[in-house]
Amino acid sequence: MNKKGLLAFSKFSSVGVLNTVIDLSVYMVLLSFGMYYLIAQWISYGAGVANSYTLNRKWTFQRKEPSTVKEVTKFLVVNLVTFICSSLILLLCHEYASFNLFVSKGAASIGSLGINFVLTNRYVFTKTMEGREHYER
Q1: Of 2, 90, 94, 108, which has the fewest CB atoms closer than 10 Å, so is most exposed?
Q2: Going by C-beta distance under 8 Å and a sequence separation of 6 or more, which residues neighbour residue 20?
């Protein structure tokens, strides 16, 4: 990974930490109200995604042009894929490995970080062919 790519991954990871704090906070509050853990996962993950789009767009990938429907759609598709992976990890860790929900949620968050960065960098906030390039590996 080149220097720009490493900086972008560092920023992405920092935003990810904040997203995780938001996600876990919402998740734990919803669980404390007795919500089923997978429904709580869907809602809490959505709260993190909303924060992720805003901060990654402006800070990590430094996009100044207005958002487009295509970009938002790509972002949502990438995060849907990441959400499915995250939910599958959560389910496997909790139901099959018998980890508690907090440990399972942590494993799901960590497990989906890399795939989300690669897809976001290569598919969502990629630069166009007009002389701009995405951050290389």
Answers
A1: 2
A2: 48, 109
- Global pTM reads 0.69
Report the alpha-carbon distance of residue 92 to residue 88 in Å, rounded.
6
Q: How confident is the prediction along the chain (137 residues), in pLDDT tens digits per residue?
A: 678 888 888 998 899 889 889 988 999 999 999 999 889 988 998 899 889 999 999 999 888 889 899 999 999 999 999 889 988 999 999 999 999 988 998 898 888 887 888 898 888 987 653 444 444 44
H or E stretch including 113? helix 101-119
List Cα–Cα distances, 14 to 20, 36, 56, in angstroms.
10, 29, 10
